[in-house]
Design a protein that fits this description.
Length: 180
């Protein structure tokens, strides 16, 4: 699971903010806890899968960005100028964001990392089931996270499929694309 998380977290993101956190439920106790938050439509899916991942968006990435930049400074040969530049654009951008824009931004990026998690799990031979039908209220605290900081986004069940996926049709590319 950590290998998949490692690969998933190569996902593109704004200024290396990496505004996400994963809770992986792979114990009976963890699964039961998460199961109790699922709506009836998705009941049983946590207990019946090998593990599940609850993806959170992190609203407080800004407070920890200097650790990320310092790591890049040390490990990736950043120059002093680049370090200064990254800190400056990040703080300028951070100050300009309203609360709503910050939430939109981190939830969007949590979506990117979630899709990448799904694709990486597939590359490792696992099937996944993304589920939005769960109660948000209190779920961060249930797993020891600060609910004011972490926004619950999606639950992804991970394991081996017991049946083939239902076939679906997609809208044509021309219907969803405008050339200008
Ligand atoms: C954001 C999101 C939320 C979803 N929520 C649920 C859900 O709560 N319950 C469910 O059975 N499937 C849910 N799905 C799964 C889809 O219905 C579908 O099974 C999945 O995306 C893979 O199949 P597809 O290729 O048809 O999209 C969700 C998918 C996404 C991307």
């Amino acid at each position: 699971m950590l290998e998949i998380v490692k690969e998933a977290t190569r996902a593109c993101n704004a200024v290396d903010s990496q505004p996400w956190h994963f809770v992986i439920t792979d114990t009976d106790e963890g699964k039961q806890k998460l199961e109790s938050y699922m709506w009836p439509v998705d009941r049983g899916r946590i207990e019946n899968s090998s593990a599940s991942v609850l993806v959170f968006a992190d609203k407080d990435w800004f407070a920890h960005i200097d650790e990320v930049f310092n790591k890049s400074f040390q490990e990736n040969g950043w120059t002093e100028e680049r370090l200064y530049f990254m800190n400056k654009i990040t703080s300028d951008w951070g100050m300009d964001l309203s609360d709503g824009e910050l939430e939109d931004s981190v939830i969007f990026q949590a979506g990117l990392v979630t899709m990448q998690f799904i694709l990486c799990a597939r590359a490792h031979g696992y099937d996944t089931g993304p589920m939005a039908a769960f109660t948000r209220q209190g779920v961060a605290e249930e797993f020891g996270l600060d609910g004011n900081r972490f926004i619950p986004c999606l639950v992804v069940a991970v394991g081996k499929a017991t049946a083939p996926a239902e076939p679906v049709s997609r809208r044509e590319p021309q219907e969803v694309t405008t050339f200008a």
